[in-house]
Specification:
CATH topology of the largest domain: D-Maltodextrin-Binding Protein, domain 2
Bound molecules: D-malate
Order of helices and strands: HEHEHEHEHEHEHEHEHEHHEH
Number of helices: 12
CATH architecture of the largest domain: 3-Layer(aba) Sandwich
Radius of gyration: 21 Å
CATH class of the largest domain: Alpha Beta
Structural class: alpha/beta
Helix content: 40-55%
Largest sheet: 8 strands, mixed
Strand content: 15-25%
Length: 325
């Protein structure tokens, strides 16, 4: 009798403690792990959204860049973090889908992270250093073919968006030029501007400022429609590489088992950010489109991630893409 009373009392204390934690969450800073270098498209997007989430959560939101291995180092760090709502994983089609078919991950990419919400997407831009003597996409493709052994494509590591988009691009034009991996396409873009590498199939949000500054050349956008922010850049369909469509979507996840109340608060803060006029203006300037409201739920992200894995994993496994490139 006495033992059962103690058990009931302990259970009650646990429930009260859990409820209290849920009500006070977040009581300390939240860290968003971005698996690429500072200054790149993932980092910029995470900071824009994280900064606005801070206002809703009334808590500091820190972005930590944990780089390497096409984003798998950072995602693994997040997946292994305590499931308490204070560590989140930012990533995208490359890090939270493609890498599952390339790297021997030590966790289950589709089940060991709980989705918080889909943030948005942007197409890729085919860009080159300014010295490349091509004035349109067809001439760029001819130049790559003529200089195949010496052409370099900048990436953020095997499995990154820039890498699998570059592999896809080269598979369509029939070349096998070399990839140069960076810890993110922020540093890769610096080398493209400096002329150290030749081409990046880059997230539009990353390259747009340098294109607009005339520091690099843009040839086409990997979408069916032109970018509102850059109506003079043709689509791949218009420029001569029809069907080369890649939309890199990004989202937020939490370690598996994160309390549902915490995920709900994080999702609500993310949704407020995606409805914020200043955030949407920044997205527009960068060529980013926020996810539709009905696609911002955790359930929608889980379904989208699974559908993308079903679509891409067979393609990537058939292509035999390995972590060493
Ligand atoms: C990529 O996958 O190419 C990344 O988004 C690069 C980055 O964010 O630095």
């Amino acid at each position: 009798m006495r033992k059962s009373l103690i058990a009931v009392a302990l259970a009650a204390v646990c429930v009260i403690a859990t409820d209290a934690a849920a009500q006070t969450y977040p009581s300390r800073p939240i860290t968003i792990i971005v698996p690429f270098a500072a200054g790149g498209p993932s980092d910029v997007l995470a900071r824009v959204v994280g900064e606005r989430m801070r206002a809703t959560l009334n808590q500091t939101v820190i972005v930590e860049n944990v780089t390497g291995a096409g984003g798998t180092i950072g995602v693994t760090r997040a997946a292994r973090a305590p499931a308490d709502g204070y560590t989140l994983s930012f990533g995208h089609l490359g890090t939270h889908v493609v890498n599952g078919a390339i790297y021997p991950l030590t966790f289950d990419l589709l089940n060991d992270l709980d989705p918080v919400g889909l943030i948005g997407a942007n197409p890729m831009l085919i860009v080159s250093k300014s010295a490349v003597p091509a004035k349109d996409l067809k001439e760029l493709i001819a130049w790559v073919k003529a200089n195949e052994a010496n052409v370099t494509f900048g990436t953020a590591g095997v499995g990154s968006g820039a890498h699998f988009s570059g592999v896809y691009f080269q598979s369509l034009i029939g070349t096998r030029s070399r990839y140069v991996p960076y810890r993110g396409t922020g540093p890769a873009l610096q080398d493209l501007v400096g002329g150290q590498i030749d081409i990046i199939v880059d997230q539009a949000s990353n390259s747009m400022p340098q294109v607009q500054a005339g520091k690099i050349k843009a040839y086409a956008v990997t979408d069916k429609k032109r970018l509102a922010v850059a109506p003079n850049i043709p689509t791949v369909d218009e420029a001569g590489l029809p069907g080369f469509h890649v939309l890199l979507w990004s989202g937020l996840w939490a370690p598996k088992g994160t309390p549902k109340e915490a995920v709900a608060k994080l999702n609500a803060a993310m949704r407020e950010a995606l409805a914020d006029a200043d955030v949407l203006k920044r997205f527009g300037d960068l060529g980013l489109e926020a996810a539709a409201a009905n696609q911002q739920t955790p359930e929608a992200l889980r379904a989208h991630q699974k559908a993308e894995a079903d679509k891409w994993w067979p393609v990537i496994k058939k292509a035999g893409v390995k972590p060493e490139g």
